[in-house]
Amino acid sequence: MKLIGPFKQLVTLANLPLRGKLSDEQLEVILDGGILIKGGKIQKIGNFNELKLEYQNQNIEIENIDGEQVGFPAFVDSHTHICFGGNRANDFAMRNAGKTYLEIAESGGGIWSSVQHTRSASEEELLTTLLQRIDFLISLGITTVEIKSGYGLDVDNELKMLRIIKKAQGQTRATLVPTSLAAHLKPKDFKGDNQDYLHYILTDILPIVKQENLARRVDIFIEKSAFQIEESKLFLLKTKDLGFEITVHADQFTPGSSRVAVEVGAKSADHLEATIDEDIDFIATSNTVATALPGASLGLGEKFTPARKLLDAGAIVAIASDWNPGSAPMGNLITQASILATYEKLTTAEVLAGITFRSAYALGLEDRGKLEAGYKADFITFKTNNFQNVLYHQGSLKAENIYIDGNKIM
Ligand code: NIG
Ligand code: FE
């Protein structure tokens, strides 16, 4: 057993409910805290000196924290597209210069350009850049990262992406959660309509994904410019029959698809910038997590997900980065969550819950995201004497130490 501390403050998030609004009075903050670890899991949380006394006869190893540091459960980014080739800085510049989606696509930009760059990139190049992005996320305090395919869009390239993510898992201590997003867009070189392409995913891609155990989750982009409501619903029900968990890119520009997500029992409905008031209760009374992606709002100059309304209605609200080369190039979840809080009026407790146990729940990982006995010992520290400083500095206060399974990895 190992005792780590003392932490000036330990923000445990223990006892916070899975759904709905939270006040900061509900936050448990342990002063001069200690974390007792056994076998990669949290054995006990409490006052450092009291724990030291209590276990003094049990031959525990003491790992001292130097200086004043606050501790949190490590963060979870439940929505990213960080396996990609190329760069879309020109899309960003054109968008800001007032060009339309169509003009950008016609000049060689958009999702299709990332598909071409990802298809032509070598596996080595994709793996190296993916691992660099994972390391950046770890440096922010994120130790669990969901990663989507979706820039391959044919059998070979979708499998190539997922196999690279699997390889990356062998080279990082972070937990990677791969998701098949073959249904991102019908690729330009596919002969057939949307329904033919969705059928092709079901018959030619997903069985191999299953067989090779490359992903246990399936995502789809439901939008006027991508896949339509009815065809998507049929597709998702069939992926469920194949044994996949579901997540959906929903209501990004037009409403309606969050209802599909709830109806098919999706683990999460992500984006929701365009969700109408009438659909908020429908989401909020379900077990489908509503995931805000402020990085996409900031990258596109679009409005934010109505996180306040969703929380007030009782939804399980997570916050993720959506890091991708097009709509959300920033990748800094802490900055994004903090900015979302200022615009949507979210409490510190709501933001912290949204990037820890609530986003973990969206990934089906209920073993992490709180500092509580029995939980995975993934936690992080910041060199400061007040936990509020982390969101206050909007991402510019860097994490000091990162622990995974109770071991300091940074
Ligand atoms: O989550 N909405 C669709 N897909 C991504 C964008 C991907 C891209 O532009 O490359 C998103 O925003
Ligand atoms: Fe996305």
Outline:
This protein is α/β, with parallel strands linked by helices and 410 residues long. The protein has helices at residues 48-54, 89-96, 101-106, 111-120, 123-140, 155-169, 194-211, 229-241, 257-263, 277-284, 294-300, 307-312, 333-344, 348-354, 357-362, 389-392; strands at residues 2-11, 29-38, 41-47, 61-64, 70-73, 75-77, 142-148, 175-183, 217-221, 245-250, 268-271, 289-292, 317-319, 379-382, 399-404, 407-408. It has 2 domains: 2-74 and 369-408, Urease, subunit C, domain 1, CATH 2.30.40; 75-362, TIM Barrel (Alpha-Beta Barrel), CATH 3.20.20.
Descriptors:
410 residues, alpha/beta, Urease, subunit C, domain 1, TIM Barrel, 2 domains, 8-stranded parallel beta sheet, 16 helices, 16 strands, binds N-(iminomethyl)-L-glutamic acid, binds fe (iii) ion, metal-binding, Metal_Hydrolase, imidazolonepropionase activity, EC 3.5.2.7, hydrolase
Description:
- It comes from Chryseobacterium potabilaquae.
- One of its GO terms (biological process) is L-histidine catabolic process to glutamate and formamide.
- Residues 72-385 form the Amidohydrolase-related domain.
- It is a single chain.
- It is built from 16 helices and 16 strands.
- By secondary structure, it is α/β, with parallel strands linked by helices.
- It folds into two domains: 2-74 and 369-408, Urease, subunit C, domain 1, CATH 2.30.40.10; 75-362, Alpha-Beta Barrel (TIM Barrel).
- The strands form two sheets. Strands 1, 2, 3, 4, 5, 14, 15 and 16 form an eight-stranded mixed β-sheet that branches. It has an eight-stranded parallel β-sheet with strand order 6-7-8-9-10-11-12-13.
- Strand 10 (245-250), helix 9 (257-263) and strand 11 form a beta-alpha-beta unit.
- Helix 7 (194-211) packs parallel to helix 8 (229-241).
- N-(iminomethyl)-L-glutamic acid (NIG) binds at residues 81, 111, 114, 221, 249, 252, 296, 322, 324-328.
